[in-house]
Amino acid sequence: MDSPRVVAVCGSLRDGSYTRLGLEHALAAARAAGASTELLDLREYDLPVYDPDTETTADAERLMHEIREADAVLLGTPVYHGTFSAALKNALDYCGFDEFEDTTTGLLAVAGGGTFGPTLEHLRAVVRAVHGWTLPHQVGIRNASDQFDADGEFVDEALEERVRKLGRQAVEYAFIDPEPITEHTVQ
């Protein structure tokens, strides 16, 4: 089987983004597990607020293509008011079944404070709505500014392992067939 292509969409526009750092660690684990990887940094895309009555921009087409061609997608976001960022929401609004159907998707949420659960649930609902397959393993990073050292490395080994596991599972399950086995398929 070919090595999978894993892309990570960073929903943070901040220069010193902890979301980006977390995704970079997950992608490093995916590379170590044999995947080709790419970080899709939304700062590098000109994505106007999605309007279905307006022609899709070249950058939106490029983003959609990158996601569509991936075998697994990691979605990373800061937690803003209990949900995911507007930048990530806007990017996902450009996407649909063509980009996500039956695609393995991993979730990572980064909180400045202590709560990330609703954010992960909101992302899971979006992926489900476009028929993606979300990994059961998901990662939330609490108190993000305390979780990385000056070099961008994790200070908590257990948290680092959770993030790396997300990257490894994106590779391990990249080619999963999410269709359940039924009596009809067993014959």
Q: What report would you give on this structure?
A:
- There is one protein chain.
- Strands 1, 2, 3, 4, 5 and 6 form a six-stranded parallel sheet that branches.
- The chain has a single domain, classed as Rossmann fold, CATH 3.40.50.
- The protein is built from seven helices and six strands.
- β4, α5 and β5 form a beta-alpha-beta unit.
- The model has no long low-confidence stretch (mean pLDDT 95).
- It is an alpha/beta fold.
What keyword list fits this structure?
187 residues, alpha/beta, Rossmann fold, six-stranded parallel beta sheet, 7 helices
Helices and strands in order:
Layout: E1 5-10, H1 18-32, E2 36-41, H2 58-69, E3 72-78, H3 86-93, H4 97-100, E4 104-110, H5 117-129, E5 133-134, E6 139-141, H6 157-172, H7 183-186
Parallel strand pairs: 1-2, 1-3, 3-4, 4-5, 4-6
Number of domains: 1
Order of helices and strands: EHEHEHHEHEEHH
Q: Strand fraction band?
A: 15-25%
Task: Kindly state the number of beta strands.
Answer: 6
Principal-axis shape equals globular
Spans of 5+ residues with little confidence (pLDDT < 50)? none
Name the CATH homologous superfamily: Flavodoxin domain
- CATH architecture label name: 3-Layer(aba) Sandwich
CATH topology: Rossmann fold
Largest sheet: 6 strands, parallel
Q: Radius of gyration in whole Å, from Cα? A: 16 Å
Helix residue percentage: 25-40%
Query: What is the residue-mean pLDDT, rounded to a whole number?
Result: 95
Beginning-to-end CA distance, first to last residue: 25 Å
Structural class: alpha/beta
By CATH reckoning, the class would read Alpha Beta
Helix tally equals 7
